[in-house]
Specification:
Chain lengths: 416, 301
């Protein structure tokens, strides 16, 4: 029962072996059931595949099965006695940048797949850039298809050196682990390979099970976005008034002095309530209900913080965004902006620059901002946001822009 | 320094509570789809936790095929009373009587698919703009792509290729009149997580989940409970066996498994050792490789 949870994302170009790798992890960790296996064998036979096609396990939708590609983000689950894992399986092609961004937004670790025959290519750089942008602090570079390069150490080392050279520019990724594997044959995925005696590191699964993922959660800056006000107005609780939400940063305790935004009222936490009784402290990402000493008018979208360490409060926002929509971003365009539990309107004031995500070069002076493009913009919001930089807090530093006509999310934003 | 860490079940609980509260906040008339199965029971339990000490701000909606196990209905009524919720029951039989759907014929006839029409009609009649479901992404591969907040168009249809991106914990429930959302707070739970949580929280379940003696008939590998709706055919024989059910759906398509598991610990041990998915006991999913995807597109749970 006392298991950790590790969320990771996988990115690889078409045919690098991502589906095979995930299939292998699930298969060798005994997370595939017999009925799934039978269905896979049957489909493999129908397609005329030579061996059991492990990739079929992960390609969920019919269109994908027909075309043999991964289009959307799919989530996979497996557990070992040490950890439970959630995989966000995302496609690697340029046209699916937004899917990679989506998968990366909730992950703490990224597996970047490289085909040993091809080495570091543009797509590798793109995947690493996105992981870094979304502040994934741990990366595993899995050099796959080692069987096709005769398990040669030199080939592997050259790829490691090349990747390290590139990665020195990515400042959010604090740890990179390189592992030579063959997803197809299983070398160094779950079991240590006897083909590569020169490699002394862990297998991929062992690494995933043991890597210390220091807290992505911020336990320093107290932030509590109010989600819902609980007022039972019942005979047993005639006067109860609690603020329900999920702690987005820091630690709250009964007696703590707090500040409520935007009103600026100061009061104290009376209690931290849960269904199972009051608790002594609440930290992220716990969902709790906070009651306060004073009756203040507080509603959804307000934020409870600590007076000595408030978030920034501002209507002018600078952010990196990834554009998600077929309809390009319009300068001066107005959108709905969703940030924590708050929704405001926002107007795009300026496109600062775009990034060529294959070379990491800045592109300035290009007024078009289209599907899957990444860059920096400035926004003005209709009401102040209470925020932190994304690099300090993923919850209070992120937002989405929504087209008010179609209700589609058109951009993911990370406040700088 | 103190380490602030939540184990995996606590993280999943906290996430589900967050999603339930977002649903209450973002929709005018959300309903919680309650089947009496373990996933919907866990979801209702989480809803109690999310809004405590207030009542659950959702109506419970049960789509009743008329082919339920009697134990499920008993449990449902007791449960609803205990938590003080209000329950709406939508009957597939009514949809049949009104000519909205046509009953399947033959011994493999199932009302499973018909439920979709009854469900969508109920959503329209009661003007629900969100329906909370206990679906999990680990159940089936089409479900693996579901969002927490899953958009349904005017016709209740799901467009798997045109899904809204969902990032961080920012859920976008904006919709036009007539559209609705399916919301899945248990998206990231596995069957094992659900069982561990049931044990940890000492959640009461229908007796069907625990092993008992029952007269069953083996129909294409499914051990169906003999009843008014599952009659033994001339070329079949029934027998009494010690079974339990891993999922609870219609009597016509939910098969039991041979099991001696009488306690939650037994069940957890059994789930850990299981070599078949729980949906492997559901003949509705075996109809084709994309059976679930096809039903879901039309508006199924
Ligand atoms: N020889 C060899 N082939 C591999 C390996 N991993 C994957 N493949 C093959 O590469 C092809 C593409 O793999 P797939 O997993 O579908 O790639 P994806 O597009 O990244 O999901 C398939 O034919 C696999 O069998 C490997 O380690 N060695």
């Amino acid at each position: 029962m006392e298991m950790d949870l590790l969320r990771f994302t996988t990115a690889g170009s078409v045919d690098d072996g991502k589906s095979t790798l995930i299939g292998r992890l699930l298969y060798d960790s005994k997370s595939i059931f017999e009925d799934q296996l039978e269905a896979m064998e049957e489909s493999s036979r129908k397609r005329g595949d030579e061996h059991l096609n492990l990739a079929l396990l992960t390609d969920g939708l019919r269109a994908e099965r027909e075309q043999g590609i991964t289009i959307d983000v799919a989530y996979r689950y497996f557990a070992t006695p040490r950890r439970k894992f959630i995989i966000a399986d995302t496609p690697g092609h340029m046209q699916y940048t937004r899917n990679m961004v989506t998968g990366a937004s909730t992950a703490s670790l990224a597996i970047i797949l490289i085909d040993a025959r091809k080495g570091v290519i543009e797509q590798t750089c793109r995947h690493a850039f996105i992981a870094n942008l979304l502040r994934i602090q741990h990366a595993v570079v899995a050099v796959n298809k080692m069987d096709l390069v005769d398990y040669q150490e030199e080939t592997y080392e050259a790829i490691v050196a090349e990747f390290q050279d590139f990665a020195s520019r990515l400042d959010n990724i604090v740890e990179i682990t390189f592992i030579p594997i063959s997803a197809l044959r299983g070398d160094n995925v779950v079991a240590t390979s006897d083909q590569m005696p020169w490699y002394g590191g862990p297998t991929l699964l062992h690494h995933l099970e043991t890597v210390y993922v220091g807290s992505e959660e911020n336990h320093v800056d107290a932030r509590f976005p109010v989600q819902w006000v609980i007022r039972p107005q019942s005979d047993t609780h005639p006067d109860f008034r609690g603020y329900a939400g999920r702690v987005a940063g820091g630690v709250f305790k009964p007696g703590d002095e707090v500040l409520v935004l935007p009103s600026g009222f100061a009061t104290h936490v009376s209690a931290i309530e849960t269904f199972d009784g009051q608790i002594e402290e609440a930290f992220s990402p716990l969902s709790v209900t906070i009651t306060l000493d004073d009756d203040i008018d507080i509603s959804r979208g307000d934020m409870i913080v600590k007076p000595n360490n408030p978030p920034r409060v501002d209507q002018d926002i600078e952010a990196m965004i990834c554009w998600f929509s077929e309809r390009p971003l319009v300068s001066r365009g107005k959108y709905a902006l969703r940030h924590t539990t708050k929704e405001v309107r926002a107007v795009v004031r300026d496109i600062r620059f775009k990034v060529d995500i294959n070379t990491l070069h800045k592109i300035e002076g290009d007024p078009e901002f289209g599907l899957n493009e990444i860059g920096r913009i400035s926004l003005r919001t209709s009401a102040p946001l209470f925020y932190d930089r994304y690099n300090r807090n993923r919850t209070t530093g992120s937002f989405v822009l929504i087209d008010e006509q179609t209700n589609e999310a058109v951009a993911a934003g990370m406040i700088v | 320094m103190r380490s602030y860490k939540l184990n995996h079940v606590r993280q999943l609980e906290s996430e589900a509570i967050f999603v339930l509260r977002e649903t209450a906040a973002q929709f005018d008339r959300p309903a919680l789809l309650f089947s009496g199965g373990k996933d919907s029971i866990v979801m209702a339990h989480l809803a109690r936790k999310a809004f405590h000490p207030a009542r659950i701000p959702f109506m419970l909606l049960h789509v009743d095929t008329g082919h339920n196990f009697p134990e499920t209905i008993e449990f449902r009524d007791r449960f609803v009373k205990e938590i003080g919720a209000s329950l709406v029951v939508a009957y597939v039989q009514d949809s049949i009587d009104k000519g909205r759907v046509v009953e399947e014929q033959g011994i493999h006839a199932s009302r499973n698919k018909l439920q979709t029409v009854t469900l969508l009609d109920a959503i329209e009649t009661h003007q629900f703009d969100a329906a909370l479901g206990g679906g999990r992404r680990d159940e089936e591969k089409a479900r693996a792509k579901e969002r927490f907040f899953s958009h349904r168009n005017d016709f209740g249809e799901w467009d798997p290729k045109g899904q809204r991106p969902e990032l961080w914990n920012l859920f976008n429930g904006r919709h036009h009149h007539g559209e609705h959302f399916r919301v899945f707070p248990l998206s990231n739970w596995t069957e094992m997580d659900v069982w561990q949580y049931i044990k940890h929280e000492a959640i009461d379940l229908p007796s069907l989940y625990f092993s008992h003696r029952r007269e069953v008939v083996d129909r294409h590998g499914s051990l169906l409970a003999v009843s008014d709706v599952v009659r033994v055919q001339p070329d079949e024989t029934s027998e009494e066996r010690t079974v339990r059910f891993r999922t609870i759906g219609d009597m016509t398509c939910t098969g039991g498994v041979d099991s001696a598991a009488t306690s939650l610990d037994d069940i957890i041990a059994e789930v850990a050792a299981a070599r078949e998915t729980e949906r492997g006991t559901r003949s509705d999913d075996k109809r084709s490789e994309s059976a679930m995807e096809d039903r879901k597109k039309e508006g199924y749970f």
